[in-house]
Amino acid sequence: ISISSLAIPINKNEKMLRSPISPLSDASKHKYSNDDLTSSSRPNGSSLLPSISSSKKHKGEIQSQPHPGDFNKAIHNNSENVLLCNKPQFQTEPWSPLSTTPRDCRRTKLIFDDIPRNADYFMQEAKRKKHKADAMVEKFGKALNYAEAALSFIECGNAMEQGPMESKSPYTMYSETVELIRYAVRLKTHSGPNATPEDKQLAALCYRCLALLYWRMFRLKRDHAVKYSKALIEYFKNSSKAAQNPSPWGASGKTTGTPSPMSPSPSPVSSVGSQGSTGAPSPSPIISIPQRIHQMAANHVSITNSILHSYDYWEMADNLAKENRDFFNDLDALMGPITLHSSMEHLVQYTQQGLHWVRNSAHLS
What we know:
Layout: H1 3-6, H2 26-31, H3 34-41, H4 59-63, H5 68-86, H6 119-134, H7 139-162, H8 170-187, H9 197-220, H10 222-244, H11 291-322, H12 325-335, H13 344-361
Helix pairs in contact: 6-7, 7-8, 7-9, 7-13, 8-9, 9-11, 9-13, 10-11, 12-13
């Protein structure tokens, strides 16, 4: 719609406005009086053209009107209103936070697709990104590409959880991803006077990933940890009772009539070192336990350690985030805050958005 379609230029032969919707017949032109004109084109009951009352009656007055700019201005305003109402709203501008504080214009929002993909697809993407990082020399860019490759490995592990189990378990995939992220963090130091804001932002994002990965690893093995815990508690409870009720047999194998203060072992399968025939009891520094109990204890420690690592990395990420409040406040406002209970999908998208900002800020391709 243009201004020319809204009105016909006024000359000696024609002074009427033509409707942009449908043409008027000769008979209706005279019927289209001042009342129809003002009622159809005035907002809130006020006329946009107050100086025109009738095309025939004021033919000479319109030609000699002292302020011809008012008519043109009204026509322009009327057409502009029509154009604004019909204009589609395209959101092509970069994302900006709700606050009035100016932010970096390069912080654009990524578009994420929801197309379901299998674990093989994410595995190939992860390998491609990792090979790209392997070929790089610059440390910051290398660490950034390793972090992006780790996100694809996380998506691969998450796809393994959702779909049928493949050659590797999700726990193994997450465990190997942890090692890759820790290596990426060690490539570029984020402490010291030479550390840039981008170094700290990258490290904070990696620590968030490590915290949630360790927490997820514990959740996958939680049932095993509960079984190990019950078995170990039962074993040590029986060992404690055996230590409180020592054997009545002495060192010579004969009964002494009274319980010997030097019990052979704190458990039925435990043994102590050599003990003297006389003298004060000397507890042995070595206690034997069954192989089964030893393996249970080792597995239990490995699983429960994931909780400690998770909280440690979360606190480290919090400390770095405090030094970059604007960056992470904007990221939380755009993607939603991340917690230890966030899903793997939220973690990946949150971190991808943050890495995208870090890459743009560091002027990396």
